[in-house]
Amino acid sequence: MYSTTTDKKPQRKPLTGTRLRSYAFALLTKREYSKAELIEKLSQYAADQEEVQQLVHELSENQYQSDQRVAELVVNSQIRQGKGPNRIKLALKSKQIDHQLIAEDLQETDWIEQAYQLKIKKFGTIVEKEPKLKAKQIRFLQYRGFELDTIMKAISRTTEEE
Fold first, then answer.
1. Category of 96 on φ-ψ map: left (φ > 0), alpha (ψ -120 to 50) or beta
2. Which of 6, 16, 33, 97 is the most exposed place for a label (fewest CB within 10 A)?
3. Cα–Cα–Cα angle for 73, 63, 47, rounded to 5 degrees
4. Neighbour tally for 28: CB within 10 Å
5. 59: how many CB neighbours lie within 10 A of its CB?
C-alpha cells in the first residue's frame, strides 16, 4: 500500500534574485495585484522578506504594479455587479487598498440611479405600499451595500421621475 511518511513532495528551493523577479512578472501578467497581495504571494516562495519588499516597491515605482489600477478595476467590477458604495469599500479593504484612492469615483457615481436600476431589475417599477414588500426591497439593497437614504429615494421613485 501507500506509505504516508515517505511520499512527501520534494521541497522547492526558495526564490531569489532574477527567479523571484520573473515570478513576480509572471503573476502580474495574469492579473492586477495590490501591493499587499503581491507581497503575500511572493513571500510564499521567497527566501528573503526584505528582497520581496524591495522588489514590490520597485515594481510599483516603475508602474508595473499599481494600487490605483487595482482599485479602479475593483470599483468598475463591483458597480457592474450591482454593488453599492459600502460593499465596494469592503472589497477594497479585503484587498488591503485604501478606499481614498477612488473616493472621487465613488462620489461622482449616481448611487440613487444605481439602486433604482437594481430595484427595477429585481422588483419592477411598481412603488410598493405594503410594509412587508417594502422591507424586502430595503433589505435587498442594504445587502448590496447602499446607504439607507439612497435606498429610500430609489424605492419610492416613480417611473415619471426618470
1. left
2. 6
3. 100
4. 14
5. 20
Alpha-carbon torsion angle 21, 26, 28, 33, nearest 10:
-80
* Per-residue three-class SS string for the chain: CCCCCCCCCCCCCCECHHHHHHHHHHHHHHCCCCHHHHHHHHHCCECCHHHHHHHHHHHHHCCCCCHHHHHHHHHHHHHHCCCCHHHHHHHHHHCCCCHHHHHHHHHHCCHHHHHHHHHHHHHCCCCCCCHHHHHHHHHHHHHCCCCHHHHHHHHHCCHHHC
Tens of pLDDT, residue by residue over 105-155, are 778 888 989 999 999 898 888 888 888 988 999 999 999 999 999 999 888
CA-based nearest residue to 146, from 69, 71, 90, 98: 90
Q: Could you read off the pLDDT of 49-80 as tens digits, one per residue? A: 888 888 889 888 888 888 888 888 888 898 88
Q: Which three cell numbers stand for residue 17?
A: 534574485
- The answer to whether the Cα torsion of 71, 74, 80, 82 is positive or negative is negative
Inter-residue contact 43 to 52 (CB < 8 Å) = yes
